[in-house]
Design goal:
This protein has 661 residues and is mainly α. The chain has four domains: 198 residues, Fumarate Reductase Cytochrome B subunit, CATH 1.20.950; 136 residues, Orthogonal Bundle (Fumarate Reductase Iron-sulfur Protein, Chain B, domain 2), CATH 1.10.1060; 151 residues, Glutathione S-transferase Yfyf (Class Pi), Chain A, domain 2, CATH 1.20.1050; 124 residues, Rossmann fold (3-Layer(aba) Sandwich). The protein is built from 27 helices and eight strands. The chain starts with a helix and ends in a 12-residue tail after the last helix. The relative contact order is 0.08. Bound molecules: iron/sulfur cluster (SF4) (2 copies). The site of one iron/sulfur cluster has 13 residues, from helix 9 and helix 11. One iron/sulfur cluster (SF4) binds next to helix 10, helix 14 and helix 15.
């Protein structure tokens, strides 16, 4: 009788599980298409390392290992539970017999490890209560209790004598299958969603923004838009992201906006959208602000299907969209590979392209670009003047000419006085190594990276097309940049706009650091400067976006610097605060750059090396705002300037305009 009852219970639990999972699958499949089938070999490797090996989860020592133990324990239990099902519910002998009997010992060991893992997680969540774990829901407590019960009933079945063992076995099956039926409704859906989310993450061209066909007018009646402002506008990958979040708060800890007291919190952004997708009230502080705005504007969603309800200033406070520096910290920190930024940038696109709701400071930048051809509004004549001042080293490419390397000077290197120094240093270094280079001169227009991430797709696409036409007029092997934002768009985003017939980008995109590090490796430097301690600040767009970490460090050392690693460096580096268009607006204090500058001051290094003109400008300002800066000033230098100085210190040919030595 008991066997029959347990059997029926299990069938019921499986039916509920199947029904709930099919609902989730339908929700994910309802999203816009997105291709994620490239690089199958790498995806298999991710399955083994991130899913089975829990490599990202284990980055956090205590909680990470506790989670990993529970996960591995569940895998082991899935085998043991099936065996138990066979023995108790179906009345068979089970399959963990003979040589497979050893599996039982492994599962037993995992049962104890699971209990240890549950204890650690409970202590952390309910006793230690770290600031990034603010959702101390009853759900988490129940789930930890159920997991412990699954382990305890298994141990009871194994060690209790006679009939008691059988009752523990039935108890184990009931608890395990109850948990299975419960999982799809809870945040523990990540047990099912996370493996898919990790394996199906964006691999190629990390953070290349989606192609947007501006000639195809969206049909609003069909729920179409250029950007996104409803769940129906999201891609299936975004929807899977929402179902996968485990509310661990790692993204919150990595976020410079949150660290400096802004309203944006990437964890709340995802959790609030997740609650909304479930038809529940989003719990985050930013969502409360969004709701207030919605009510104050007289908005109503009465009768509007969930998928068509507005997100901005209903679920997501519009202010938070612009506070994001696009640093990618949240995405890289997430143990289940959620991509906050793609959603956030598509919400921005909607505000700019579909609504025309543009912050005045951004509107000024857009207008400057339209009228003067640069974001500052200086005017075309300024770059012509700079080219003139660069002298003979400004070797302008002739139409149809063939050469080895095109140095893309960029609008910073042409318009900004401080960055013109970097341009000079770069030209001197290229000359020293006798590179066959050219520049395009005053015909270059801004690469458009900032416009794209500020939501102005139209301006980005116009600039991309102009630049690609220019690039098509000459022939070269490598396009070299001194700005990581240019690197990102030329190397990735422009791929969607190359003219038919090119068959992809006909050149490699390299940073000046990659190019020069290679030259230094081959030829060495003629001298070294006595630079003393030099701290290096990783740019988000070289580091997290493109994995370029080592070349800058190698050059600092080759140039004579004693490299100092900042407390947060490489993948964990802290943003300067400029990205995503934030350079162009007055930031609410305390500023992101102050937070980073304090860390730089702490390092005690008198020189800071950077590889991005945005970082240069932000951190120069941030450092000046630090207490003690007057007594202990820190000089900010582009990495290539340190190389030029080392060459000049040997009296080699970098004479002329450099003069740092
Ligand atoms: S990209 Fe950076 S600033 Fe934006 S939400 Fe993520 S961590 Fe925060
Ligand atoms: S988005 Fe990722 S890092 Fe952030 S709370 Fe969710 S699971 Fe954790």
């Amino acid at each position: 009788m008991i066997r029959l009852l347990v059997g029926l219970y299990i069938v019921g639990a499986l039916a509920i599980f199947a029904h709930l999972v099919s609902d989730k699958v339908a929700f994910v499949r309802g999203g816009k298409p997105e291709r994620r089938s490239d690089q199958p070999g790498r995806r298999v490797a991710i399955f083994f390392s991130e899913v089975l090996g829990q490599s990202k989860v284990r980055r956090r020592l205590t909680a990470g290992w506790a989670h990993a133990l529970v996960f591995w324990g569940f895998l082991a239990f899935s085998v043991a539970t099936l065996d138990l099902l066979w023995r108790l519910a179906a009345g068979g002998d089970g399959f963990l017999q003979g040589p497979l009997g050893a599996v039982t010992a492994i599962v037993t060991a995992f049962a104890f490890l699971i209990l240890l893992g549950v204890l650690v997680l409970a202590l952390r969540r309910y006793v230690l209560r770290p600031p990034y774990l603010t959702y101390h829901s009853i759900e988490s407590a129940v789930v930890l209790g159920v997991i412990a019960l699954i382990a305890l009933t298994y141990l009871g079945e194994r060690y209790a004598a006679g009939q008691a063992s059988t009752y523990f076995g039935y108890g184990h099956l009931v608890v395990a299958f109850t948990f299975l039926a419960y999982v799809p409704t809870s945040k523990h859906f990540h047990i099912l969603g996370a493996p898919f989310n990790s394996v199906l993450q964006q691999l190629e061209d990390r953070q290349k923004m989606d192609f947007l066909d501006l000639e195809a007018e969206p049909d609003e009646a069909k729920g179409e838009a250029y950007g996104a402002n409803t769940l129906d506008h999201f891609a299936w990958t975004d929807r899977l992201d929402l179902l996968t979040c485990i509310e661990c708060g790692r993204c919150q800890e990595a976020c410079p906006a949150h660290a400096t007291g802004k309203l944006l919190n990437p964890r709340d952004f995802i959790v609030d959208l997740k609650y909304h997708a479930k038809g529940m009230t989003p719990p985050g502080a930013q969502a409360a602000v969004a709701r207030e705005t919605f009510v104050a504007s007289g908005g109503s969603v009465e009768g509007v299907p969930l998928g068509r309800q507005p997100l901005v200033d209903h679920v997501v406070a519009s202010r938070t969209l612009w506070e994001c520096t696009t640093c990618l910290g949240c995405v890289m920190a997430c143990p289940v590979d959620i991509d906050h930024m793609s959603m956030l940038l598509n919400l921005r696109r909607y505000q700019v392209l579909d609504v025309g709701d543009i912050e005045p400071e951004y509107q000024r930048v857009f207008t400057n670009m339209e009228r003067a051809g640069d974001p500052w509004g200086y005017g075309e004549h300024r770059k012509t003047e700079t080219i003139g001042k660069l002298g003979d080293r400004a070797r302008i490419a002739e139409p149809g000419e063939r050469f080895e390397l095109l140095f893309w000077v960029g609008c910073w290197g042409l318009y900004d006085d401080r960055s013109v120094e970097t341009t000079r240093a770069t030209l001197a270094v290229l000359d020293h190594f006798e590179v066959d280079y050219r520049i395009l001169g005053d015909t270059e227009v801004c690469c458009g990276e900032n416009y794209r991430r500020m939501g102005n797709e139209l301006q980005f696409q116009m600039n991309a097309q102009t630049n690609l036409e220019l690039l098509g007029g000459v022939s070269f092997d490598r396009l070299m940049v001194t700005n990581p934002h240019c690197h990102q768009v030329f190397g990735k985003d422009y791929k969607d706009f190359v003219p038919e017939g090119w068959g992809g980008l006909p050149f490699e995109v390299v940073s000046v650091e990659e190019e020069v590090a290679r030259l230094v490796r081959w030829h060495g430097l003629p001298g070294r400067s006595e630079l003393g301690k030099v701290a290096y600040h990783d740019s988000c767009f070289y580091g997290r976006y493109n994995g370029i970490y080592e070349e800058q460090r190698a050059l600092v050392q080759a140039g004579g610097g004693e490299l100092v690693e900042l407390r947060r460096s490489r993948e964990q580096a802290f943003c300067c605060g400029a990205g995503g268009g934030n350079f162009w607006r007055e930031e609410k204090e305390p500023r992101v750059s102050w937070n980073r500058a304090a860390e730089i001051m702490e390092s005690g290094a008198p020189t800071l090396a950077v590889s991005c003109p945005f970082c240069m400008a932000m951190l120069e300002d941030g450092l000046k705002a630090q207490e003690g800066f007057m007594e202990r000033p820190v000089q900010v230098r582009h990495v290539v300037e340190l190389v030029a100085q080392a060459i000049a210190s040997a009296g080699a040919d970098t004479t002329g305009p450099l003069g740092h030595g």
